[in-house]
């Protein structure tokens, strides 16, 4: 793994940046790379809490398939440093706007920027079943595209968190012929006849009753135990966490949000431009299903739009002056 070259507290954060990127994950670093290469003074504010931190590896990113998320981000931080992009380990706790944006950091400093790219992502809220949080990212998983190949043909369980978990059970049946849907807190009568027929066609067994805990032996998931004491042998459990978008900064700026079945997210145009002039977003900050490759692409797209916006704004000011 390459060495981090994070900018720390000895860096002078005064003056106005062209762009402050809030969030140092795939979306934020990708945006910062484009901004740095465009010769813009750029600061990345990184709280160091990437969504995929529990995972030992990431999949589906061409040329980076199987790389650990930590190594991926370390390489990204090295790359942006080559172009003079600054990075500070801190959390943005407030933002306001007068002529420029003022971003207040938890460490006490306030940084100023002409434009903002907010890539604060989301937090996964897991069901309070003993063993789920401890095993998450190992043999408790959420995405078959991320992890399905690695656990193919194992004995899958799907822990229902809502009726939408039926869709998850149907999807993961593409990676294993042995799938059991544990309804947990979902009542069997909440499933439609069409859903039950599809589950039967996919060979998915449906088990009612609340799940009490996961069974773990020698640091390996071995099964699921129900509240009535019955146990089912399983080696992998899929779960759909409740996504909690980190929209605090957007709300402070008065950005327009839209409600979805997976949380409230900013309304954006195809470049990630929000309803607040001068503010863009990318990655899981604009949707729960953004994978690493999508986040990196979205960060690039947002940064390119910001570069064009700043160039044209400066030219318009020069013409007016």
From TrEMBL:
Coiled-coil ranges from the UniProt annotation: none
Species of the source: Streptomyces hyderabadensis
Descriptive protein name: NAD(P)/FAD-dependent oxidoreductase
Keyword Kinase: no
Keyword line: Flavoprotein, Oxidoreductase
Cross-referenced SUPFAM superfamilies: FAD/NAD(P)-binding domain
Reactions performed catalytically: [thioredoxin]-dithiol + NADP(+) = [thioredoxin]-disulfide + NADPH + H(+)
InterPro entries to which the protein is assigned, alphabetical: FAD/NAD-bd_sf (IPR036188), FAD/NAD-binding_dom (IPR023753), Ferredoxin-NADP_redctase_2 (IPR050097)
């Amino acid at each position: 793994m390459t060495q981090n070259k994070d900018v720390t507290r000895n860096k002078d954060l005064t003056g106005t940046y062209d762009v402050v990127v809030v969030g140092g994950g795939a979306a934020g670093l990708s945006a910062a790379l484009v901004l740095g290469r465009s010769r813009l003074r750029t600061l990345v504010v990184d709280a160091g809490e990437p969504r995929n931190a529990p995972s030992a590896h990431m999949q589906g990113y061409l040329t980076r398939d199987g790389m650990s998320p930590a190594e991926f981000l370390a390489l990204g931080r090295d790359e942006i440093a080559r172009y003079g992009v600054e990075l500070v380990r801190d959390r943005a706790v407030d933002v306001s706007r007068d002529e420029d944006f003022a971003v207040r950091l938890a460490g006490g400093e306030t940084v100023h920027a002409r434009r903002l790219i907010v890539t604060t992502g989301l937090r996964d809220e897991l069901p309070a079943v003993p063993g789920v949080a401890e095993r998450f990212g190992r043999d408790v998983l959420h995405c078959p595209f991320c992890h399905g190949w690695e656990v193919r043909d194992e004995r899958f369980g799907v822990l229902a968190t809502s009726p939408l978990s039926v869709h998850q059970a149907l999807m993961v049946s593409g990676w294993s012929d042995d799938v059991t849907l544990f309804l947990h807190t979902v009542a069997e009568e909440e499933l439609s006849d069409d859903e039950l027929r599809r589950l039967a066609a996919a060979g998915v067994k449906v088990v009612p009753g609340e799940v009490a805990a996961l069974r773990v032996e020698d640091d390996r998931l071995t099964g699921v135990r129900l509240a009535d004491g019955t146990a089912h042998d399983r080696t992998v459990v899929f779960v759909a966490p409740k996504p909690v978008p980190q929209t605090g900064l957007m709300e402070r700026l008065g950005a327009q949000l839209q409600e979805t079945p997976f949380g409230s997210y900013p309304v954006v145009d195809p470049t990630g431009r929000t309803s607040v002039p001068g503010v863009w977003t990318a990655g899981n900050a604009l949707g729960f299903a953004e994978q690493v490759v999508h986040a990196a692409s979205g960060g690039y797209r947002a940064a390119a739009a910001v570069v064009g916006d700043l160039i044209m704004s400066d030219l318009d000011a020069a013409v007016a002056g």
